[in-house]
Amino acid sequence: MRRTTFPRITECSATAGSAESSSIAADLDGTMLISRSSFPYFMLVAVEAGSLLRGLVLLASFPLIAIAYLFLSESLGIQMLIYISFKGVKIRDIELVARAVLPRFYAADVRQESWKLFDNCGGRKVVVTANPVVMVEPFVKDFLGGDKVLGTEIEVDPRTGRATGFVKSPGVLVSDLKRSAVEKEFGGPGNGPDFGIGDRESDHAFMALCKEGYMVHPDSRAKAVPGEQLKSRIIFHDGRFVQAPTPLTALLTYLWLPFGFALSLVRVYFNLPLPERIVRHTYPLLGINLVIRGNPPPPSTSTRGGSLFVCNHRTALDPIVIAIALRRKISCVTYSVSRLSRLISPIPAVNLTRDRAADAARISALLEKGTWWSAPRAPPAASHSSSGSRRCSRS
Questions:
Q1: SS3 for 136-204, per residue?
Q2: Which intervals of the chain are annotated as region Disordered (predicted)?
Q3: Which one of 69, 128, 230, 348 has the fewest beta carbons within 10 angstroms of its own beta carbon?
Q4: Phi and psi torsions of 228, nearest 5°
């Protein structure tokens, strides 16, 4: 018989020593994570792997999804999120977002009490979730140290490599399906791990299999785990969103987009014709806060070569901002950029060929003439040529 009540996670007395060989099955949203909503992560997939239009459709559908989730079926709500976010998207793009974008937002939301028990367990550790495995697996394995993700498997068209928007049998992993998955993972009917933690009634099914089960109750003031305590650290991050796109944040972002786009055009084209030494003073008038730390390298001379700046490439304006900070003209090396883009570029741009030897020689020659800008996604030749420059800065 299933238990219907479980003690709070705060009542768990397991330590690293006592749980050294213990196994655990943990829910994700609301349990390992503070937030109970998976909407922000589906929004990230919709925008980063799909488009802003797809994200807008998902945002407009949120009221219907919420009604379906709360009053009809948890499974139906998740299925709607998956269909809108994944339909027609290349599985490769979803995998890239799961590795390059989602971990930063997941890592900032890991709940301390749940992480303590999960980390203390030295046996088999699995995360049980209704979310698609492809979304959460990189984070669970790399940052939580989980061994496996038991989650929803999405359907992919083998001819196109794109998600169909539907899920594979047995469907969205909730309630009894979670129980069945945990039983299968831990040796068959009636078998389960030593510990089980969840945050909602639909988790009771798999928690009842565990020797000890604990509830993680909603608490917006719960402490998050510092990033350095996780199994890995966020080093490189991609993506357009600064904050997790909750429904409110996403709505405000879309409302701001037309005004932000118009303002960006003013900021860029008002300053383009002005000398770099003057632009530093016009920036504050347009609401731009330019912070410069350190001493810029001197200009190139006949006896001293130029400098190579390697930037994180957050926007296409990186080389322009570098030029303003240096108070002098710079040029950039790039690749996979059309001839039209190079023609309308406000600064000189040289296209690379992806041939290591040829590009290394080209960049070395260019550094003799002045200061250049590059991004880390440039070909490997850039790293070889930078070693020959007199000064190399990273921005």
A1: HHHHHHHHCCCCEEEEECEEEECCCCEEEEEECCCCCCCCHHHHHHHHHHCCCCCCCCCEEEECCHHHH
A2: 376-395
A3: 348
A4: -70, -15
Pairing status of strand 162-167 against strand 195-198: unpaired
Strands 195-198 and 212-215, by their bridges, are parallel
- CB–CB of 42/106 below 8 Å? no
pLDDT per residue, tens digit, the chain (395 aa), is: 455 688 888 888 776 566 777 888 999 998 999 998 999 999 999 999 999 999 999 999 999 999 999 999 999 999 999 999 999 999 999 998 998 889 999 999 999 989 988 988 888 899 999 999 999 999 999 999 999 999 999 999 999 999 999 999 888 988 889 988 998 888 877 778 888 898 888 888 888 888 888 898 888 788 889 888 888 887 666 677 888 999 999 999 999 999 988 888 888 778 777 777 788 788 888 888 888 887 777 776 666 666 777 776 556 677 777 777 777 777 777 665 556 566 656 666 776 666 677 777 777 776 666 555 555 443 333 333 333 333 333 33
Cα–Cα distance, 135 to 91 (Å, whole number): 10
Q: What is the token pair recorded at 302?
A: 């006949």
C-alpha torsion sign, points 5, 70, 134, 47? negative
Q: Hey, what are 203's tokens?
A: 């988790």
Q: Encode 188-205: b = buried (16+ Cβ within 10 Å), e = exposed.
A: eeeebbbbbbbbbebbbb
| Residue pair 272/329 in contact by the 8 Å Cβ criterion | no
Under a CB-based contact definition with an 8 Å cutoff, are residues 326 and 308 in contact? no
Closest CA to 297 of 390, 362, 373, 200: 390
**CA pair distance 325, 53, nearest whole angstrom:** 35
**What number of other Cβ atoms are within 10 A of residue 362's Cβ?**
18
Q: Considering Cα of 175, then 181, then 182, then 183, what sign does the dihedral take?
A: positive
Q: Report the distance separating Cα 151 and Cα 131, nearest Å.
A: 6
